[in-house]
Recover the amino acids of this structure.
């Protein structure tokens, strides 16, 4: 028992050290940025892959269900989004009547619908910090510097507080690394003591001594199948969330299977037993996820179960559909084809900057050592550094094989990168002057770039969408008995759930007449992507004509808005001039709003089209614009403008 206690103590903390104050400041900043809220809009998937669909199910409101949730060929698992986003949305639904009655605060307004799910995800993001902290403690590494670097990354401040499936993937990856690291450490300790006792047993002289050593061997804890059920379930959930999790789980599972291989204690029989148990323990979670998806998408019904008429057609496996879709290059072309070096050359520097640079240097150095045969200078294959290094490299290599590459796909590798190099950019007493100067420069670069990207992606990129939705919500709430049409162009799609529009597909019943009916829509969101101006105004003309017809026939009032980046204002007015009966009036504008879909041109010296109404430029028709005025004119175009479309009074449609 004494030996067993020593082994367990060696696995636990050596001492408990409080976390640094600067780390808590950064955690507070994470929550503060979430509550502001962040008006930036990184990618439509942060809404339409998760929260938009779940909100539609819980609140019975109109939402945009993307092609990924098409029951004919669903490729998105619903279990993980329901598990993570269901609780905060249910809290809103349950508490809203009471909060509204006693405090006159409507939780089903854009601010709370945006912030409360993000706040819940922000709380879950602390699991990443905790796993990193535990790994550092277990392996005797400096956790203070690593936690500060991790918490100051804009990936954590921005991406990890959004409802991306990649955010959930990072969460599962962090837990997986922690569980495998814990198993490796425990196995190393048990194997070391077991080999020591076996050696003692061989050299024991008396039977009494052999019996004593044998009893000590029986007190050693089991380690071969540690956390097998947790690991198997976690890998299955991660794959159903995003099948790309296979690339992230490959190395940790490889290390878990190979613990102690090559020692006198662990052989290939243990290796095969681990594989078998891992597969067996993963089956229940596989069946659960398939069952949930099949029921949600309508493949499996209670009638099928009651009649016991169940066949292969009653089941849907979303990860297989996902892989079938993404292995077809023709389908990926719709979403954008990227060069296979994009992750390595662009996305890694943007996401991880200094850490990515240090990782690249380490890979080059270890490749050189491998070629030269200097294997002793490389990380050991069964060490924690080997686990972390390969866990950063392998997912990057696997995801680079696919021609569709977005930066958010590789955010989970931040955890192993911080573990490996988070302490390397902090100055220590043993550093010489040149190294201290280099580290100071790296620290400045790290914090500067993360501040810039946090502001850009958190508040500037597509930053006009949320303020517009917020205003549209309250305007729509006060416009009873009238229709509202919103046409968007050259911007990301509006998350419909934030408007809380009553469902037009749900069947309602009149309590008195018992008749069933559906609600006719009163707000119409027309998303036209990046259509050319002539085609856009053909659609505007059609929507306006239909609205005018309803107004004259049924006396149904309406409002029609066109929402566009400010950089397209001249093109809009140029095109609308072709329609003498359409009047385009500026309604409101939202700044800042950066979008690559309509990037503004830098004005020339004699371009005074944006001078009118500017607070920073004094208009003078005789002089050219100065460089400062041209820069100001250029910056002013990064906004979102809303135009009110009306029929000229002299014309009738």
């Amino acid at each position: 028992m004494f030996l067993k206690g020593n082994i367990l103590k060696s696995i636990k903390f050596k001492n408990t050290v409080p976390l640094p104050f600067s780390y808590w400041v950064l955690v507070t900043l994470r929550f503060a940025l979430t509550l502001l809220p962040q008006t930036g809009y990184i990618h439509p998937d942060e809404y339409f892959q998760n929260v938009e669909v779940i909100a539609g199910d819980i609140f019975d409101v109109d939402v945009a269900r993307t092609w990924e949730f098409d029951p004919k060929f669903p490729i998105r698992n619903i279990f993980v989004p329901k598990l993570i986003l269901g609780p905060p949305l249910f809290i809103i639904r349950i508490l809203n009547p009471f909060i509204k009655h006693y405090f006159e605060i409507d939780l089903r307004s854009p601010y709370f619908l945006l912030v409360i799910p993000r706040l819940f995800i922000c709380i879950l993001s602390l699991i990443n910090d905790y796993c990193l902290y535990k790994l550092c403690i277990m392996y005797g590494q400096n956790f203070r510097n690593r936690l500060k670097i991790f918490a100051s990354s804009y990936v954590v401040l921005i991406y990890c507080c959004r409802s991306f499936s990649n955010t959930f993937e990072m969460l599962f990856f962090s837990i997986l690394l922690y569980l495998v690291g814990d198993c490796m450490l425990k196995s190393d300790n048990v194997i070391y003591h077991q080999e020591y006792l076996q050696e003692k047993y061989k050299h024991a002289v008396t039977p009494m001594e052999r019996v004593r050593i044998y009893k000590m061997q029986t007190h050693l804890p089991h380690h071969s199948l540690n956390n097998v059920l947790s690991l198997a379930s976690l890998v299955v959930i991660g794959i159903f969330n995003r099948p790309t999790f296979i690339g992230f789980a490959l190395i940790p599972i490889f290390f878990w299977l190979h613990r102690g291989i090559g020692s006198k204690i662990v052989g290939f029989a243990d290796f095969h037993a681990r594989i078998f148990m891992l597969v067996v323990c993963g089956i229940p979670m596989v069946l659960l996820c398939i069952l949930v998806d099949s029921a949600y998408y309508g493949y499996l019904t209670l009638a099928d179960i009651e009649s016991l008429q169940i066949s292969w057609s009653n089941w849907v496996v979303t990860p297989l559909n996902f892989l079938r879709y993404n292995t077809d290059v023709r389908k990926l072309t719709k979403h954008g084809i990227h060069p296979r070096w994009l992750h390595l050359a662009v996305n890694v520097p943007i996401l991880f900057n200094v850490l990515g640079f240090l990782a690249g240097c380490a890979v080059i150095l270890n490749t050189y050592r491998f070629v030269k045969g200097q294997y002793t200078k490389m990380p050991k294959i069964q060490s924690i550094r080997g686990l972390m290094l390969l866990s950063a490299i392998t997912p990057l290599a696997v995801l680079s094989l696919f021609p569709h590459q977005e930066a958010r796909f590789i955010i989970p590798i931040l955890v192993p990168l911080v573990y490996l190099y988070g302490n390397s950019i902090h100055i220590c007493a043993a550093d010489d002057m040149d190294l201290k100067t280099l580290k100071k420069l790296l620290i400045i670069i790290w914090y500067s770039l993360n501040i810039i990207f946090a502001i850009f992606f958190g508040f500037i990129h597509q930053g006009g969408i949320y303020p517009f939705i917020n205003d549209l919500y309250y305007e729509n709430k006060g416009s009873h008995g009238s229709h509202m049409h919103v046409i968007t162009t050259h911007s990301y799609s509006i998350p419909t759930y934030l408007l809380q529009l009553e469902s037009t597909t749900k069947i309602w019943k009149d309590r008195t007449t018992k008749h069933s009916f559906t609600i006719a829509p009163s707000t119409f969101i027309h998303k036209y992507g990046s259509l050319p101006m002539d085609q856009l105004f053909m659609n505007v003309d059609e929507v306006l004509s239909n609205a005018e017809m309803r107004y004259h026939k049924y006396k149904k009032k309406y409002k029609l808005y066109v929402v566009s980046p400010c950089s397209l204002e001249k093109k809009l007015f140029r095109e609308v001039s072709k329609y003498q009966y359409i009047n385009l009036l500026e309604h409101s504008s939202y700044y800042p709003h950066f979008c690559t879909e309509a990037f503004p041109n830098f004005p020339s010296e004699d371009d005074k089209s944006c001078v009118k109404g500017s607070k920073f430029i004094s208009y003078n028709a005789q002089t050219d614009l100065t460089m400062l005025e041209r820069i100001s004119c250029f910056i002013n175009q990064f906004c979102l403008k809303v135009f009110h479309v009306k029929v000229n009074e002299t014309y009738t449609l």
